[in-house]
Amino acid sequence: MKPFLYALMMMVGLMTSEVAAEAQDLENTLYLDLDTGGRVVIATRPDLAPNHVTRIKELVRQGFYDGTVFHRVIAGFMAQGGDPTGTGMGGSGEKIPAEFSGAPHLRGTVSMARATEPDSADSQFFICFTRVAHLDHQYTVWGRVVSGMEFVDQIAVGEPPRNPSKIVKMQVAADVKE
Fold first, then answer.
1. Residue 142 — φ and ψ, nearest 5°?
2. What's the Cα-to-Cα distance from 60 to each of 1, 31, 173, rounded to whole Å?
3. What is the DSSP code (8-state) at residue 41?
4. How far apart are CA 41 and CA 24, in angstroms?
5. Which positions fall inside the PPIase cyclophilin-type domain (predicted)?
6. Is 71 exposed, middle or buried (0-12, 13-18, 19+ CB in 10 A)?
7. pTM value?
């Protein structure tokens, strides 16, 4: 086997192992059940954004996100949700100071939405549909989709969508008794 091909196969194997390891950390894994018909599994990144991950998990455990809609969805860019009013103007009322990192905004990256002020993130978040380099170092990356991206791809598009897709339930995997 050619060295390049072997190295590539090893990298893919390691990446798969990393994803599997992240998914095994149930305290830092979220289940996002969508009305598009499936479960999205998000591996949180407390190593990048410990305060954001802590706050998101608090809100998840309160049921804050259950029933909320994706109010801003731009094809080829991202799906934004987490606003209890469904307008893009609401939040939990608790701002979180920015935790910018070098993590890139790739397909499946979960990051905090914010206003122009860097420390204005609250409860709203977005999931990237593709690589969005211009967001790097300007928005707090706090997780990534490790499975179920096909359900994210089915979220209704629009600003706002005519019939917005909903989060049926969002849970910390460690709390789920199945």
1. -125, 0
2. 48, 10, 11
3. E
4. 11
5. 38-178
6. buried
7. 0.86
Tabulate helix, strand, coil % of the chain (nearest 5).
25, 25, 45
Q: SS3 of 56, please?
A: helix
Site of tokens 């002020």 = 117
Parallel/antiparallel/unpaired status of strands 70-74 and 141-147:
unpaired
| Helical H segments across the chain, by residue range | 3-24, 50-61, 149-152
Whole-Å CA distances, 88 to 71, 78, 80: 6, 14, 9
Give pLDDT tens digits along the chain (178 positions). Answer: 444 444 444 444 544 444 444 447 999 999 999 999 899 999 999 999 999 999 999 999 999 999 999 999 999 999 999 999 999 999 999 999 999 999 999 999 999 999 999 999 999 999 999 999 999 999 999 999 999 999 999 999 999 999 999 999 999 999 998 6
What stretch of H or E contains 23?
helix 3-24
